[in-house]
Specification:
heterodimer; A: alpha/beta; Rossmann fold; 6-stranded mixed beta sheet; 4-stranded antiparallel beta sheet; 9 helices; B: mainly alpha; 14 helices; ATP-binding (chain A); ABC_transporter-like_CS (chain A); transport (chain A); nucleotide-binding (chain A); ABC_transporter-like_ATP-bd (chain A)
Chain lengths: ~260, ~325
């Protein structure tokens, strides 16, 4: 079986700058969830950008269904990969329903405007995320969290088998974070492959699929959550003293900071 | 979606009706005032109308009114297109230097005594050069802010005005200078069916391509990254838009000289009425631009015995509207 996405010895560095990552390899199939963890500025977003096509890897290969990604047209790539960028305040006054429907653009010909069916798909996605009530509002009047949900709805409408989310939970309250993580699980169960970055190791434990861990030196390891995410590995990754505790009430392990930040002596 | 669609189509339809009504009204107005009866008679039973009225209507007023409609629409559509692709509410054919660039091209053609086609080619070439310069300056500085593009546009406009000044200095004061100066302030008084027809293909192609791209423009207005993630070939499609918008500006400049403000404020008025979705805002800005210039030109030829240059009027009307837009829409610099 060919993997939906494979990266083979991928490397990237900005011109005349040190290497961000190299020898980065992993495979992703439909139904997989890959949670990428790592300290700030280590290259999580850079990696996502390489996959989406915003940046060109300096070495290595990116294959989608065994076909090099750079051989795909921008449009075909958009049919394969939906990308939810890191939350930035959206200045457009476009109505939520119109904004969500921009996700249908890869399926429209050059002069085509979105039709009734496209808007219906948009409404379905908004309903799935519980924000259908926002559909007639200008996007720039919404809160950061609402905007993030709308952007995710747009990615759903794009109907690509691979969905990439850069810190999808960063602007969301606890309830909405749970909603998004549940949605990610549901999408994976429906056969989508998902890559997300997060600042919270607990999201990886909750999702309990694959984890990609960026070490402080830029080395990237991929593995199953249970085997890869040890207290030592996480403490090393974040350069902090972190504890893993099994909580019977939750039936899973959680990652926490030590209970005292400054030792008393 | 359907409700939304109906209301936007209603706005477009009503605006079109207003435009048609105003066009008929404008036909009756002028030094030689006609009644609606006269107009109807002339339009329906032309053989019963005096040749003077027929001449005034069909040879003087009609080409001029059509010119106002076409030029107003062209400038407004090109402004909407520029504002969308640069995601910048402060750019317009004037502020990007395109209008003055096209004016330099056209003035050069006047000096060289070129025929209308040569004028169009030079106007388009110089306009395109100006907009490319305006885009290149912030890029070279590694800046992508709204303000840097506006500043670059002001600089390029200034350069083009200097060149225009030089051309005026070189021009023959008895014949060419007057033409250049008068036409630099914008006027529709020299529009004839012939020169209208000669520029029409250029305007038609530019306008048609932009209309075809009305949804792409919405996607492009979200920024390069989002547009690319949506499968838009950003570099190529933005180039197409720049060329087409410059076609429209250069074509308009060839007909009427530079008329300021329309390309800046009309797109805002259209978005205020119908929202930022270019699918609707683009055609609406065309209609509103047509109405705007038709009104301004009718004022220009009826307010006084002489003709008031259009840029003077659009300046007086445009500035307060622009200030109002800046205040209410909270444009971020």
């Amino acid at each position: 079986m060919t993997a939906l996405l494979s990266t083979i010895n991928l490397a990237f560095h900005y011109p005349r700058r040190p290497v961000v990552f190299n020898q980065l390899s992993f495979q992703l199939n439909r139904g997989d969830i890959l949670t990428i963890l790592g300290p700030n500025g280590i290259g999580k977003s850079t990696l996502l950008n390489c996959i989406v096509g915003g940046l060109t890897p300096t070495a290595g290969q990116l294959l989608m269904n065994n076909q090099p990604i750079d051989q795909l047209t921008v449009r075909d790539r958009a049919k394969m990969i939906a990308y939810v960028a890191q939350q930035t305040a959206n200045q457009t006054a476009l109505l939520v329903q119109d904004y969500v429907v921009t996700g249908r653009t890869p399926y429209l010909s050059f002069g085509q405007v979105p039709g009734v069916e496209d808007y219906e798909r948009g409404e379905d996605a908004l309903e799935k995320l519980g924000i259908i009530a926002l559909k007639d509002q200008p996007l720039n009047t919404l809160s950061g969290g609402q905007q993030q949900l709308v952007t995710i709805a747009k990615a759903l409408v794009q109907a690509a088998p691979l969905i990439i989310l850069d810190e999808p939970t960063s602007a969301l309250d606890f309830g909405r974070q749970q909603l998004i993580l549940e949605l990610i699980e549901r999408l994976a169960a429906d056969g989508y492959a998902i890559i997300l970055t997060s600042h919270n190791p607990n999201h990886a434990f909750l999702l309990d699929h694959q984890v990609g861990l960026f070490a402080p030196d830029g080395h990237f390891t991929v593995g199953a959550t249970q085997t890869l995410l040890t207290a030592t590995a996480l403490s090393q990754t974040y350069q902090a003293d972190l504890k893993l505790v099994y909580v019977p009430e939750l039936g899973r392990t959680i990652c926490e900071m030590p209970h005292r930040l400054v030792s008393p002596n | 979606m359907r409700k939304h669609h109906i209301s936007t189509n209603l706005i477009l339809g009503l605006t079109l009706m207003v435009l048609i009504l105003l066009a008929f009204l404008a036909l009756t107005m002028g030094r030689y005032q006609l009644s609606f009866d006269d107009l109807l008679t002339a339009l329906i039973r032309s053989q019963q109308t005096s040749p003077i009225i027929t001449n005034i209507l069909f040879n003087l007023r009609l080409p001029r009114i059509l010119g106002a409609i076409i030029i107003g629409a062209a400038l407004a559509i090109s402004g909407t297109a520029y504002q969308s692709i640069f995601q910048n509410p402060l750019v317009s054919p004037d502020l990007l230097g395109v209008s003055n660039g096209a004016a330099v091209g056209a003035a050069t053609a006047i000096l060289l005594g070129l025929h209308p086609f040569g004028t169009q080619v030079l106007a388009f070439g110089a306009g395109l050069l100006a907009v490319c310069l305006s885009i290149a300056i912030p890029r070279a500085m590694g800046q992508s802010t709204t303000l840097s593009l506006v500043l670059a546009g002001i600089v390029v406009s200034g350069l083009m005005q200097a060149i225009l000044g030089l051309l005026k200095y070189l021009a023959d004061p008895d014949s060419q200078l007057q033409t250049i100066v008068y036409w630099q302030l914008g006027s529709l008084s020299k529009i004839t069916p012939t020169n209208l027809l000669s520029v029409l293909p250029m305007l038609f192609v530019g306008g048609l391509v932009l209309w075809v791209m009305r949804w792409r423009l919405t996607v492009l207005s979200l920024g390069d990254r989002q547009a690319q993630a949506q499968g838009v070939n950003v570099v190529l499609e933005r180039r197409i838009v720049v060329v087409c918008a410059t076609f429209l500006t250069a074509g308009a400049v060839c007909l009427s000289g530079t008329i300021g403000w329309i390309g800046l404020i009309v797109p805002h008025m259209a978005r205020l009425l119908i929202g930022p979705n270019t699918r609707y805002a683009l055609p609406l800005s065309g209609l509103v631009g047509a109405i705007f210039l038709l009104l301004v030109d009718t004022l220009a030829r009826t307010l006084s015995a002489g003709e008031i240059p259009l840029s003077i009027l659009t300046g007086f009307i445009g500035t307060p509207i622009f200030i109002y837009i800046l205040l209410t829409r909270k444009v971020r610099l």
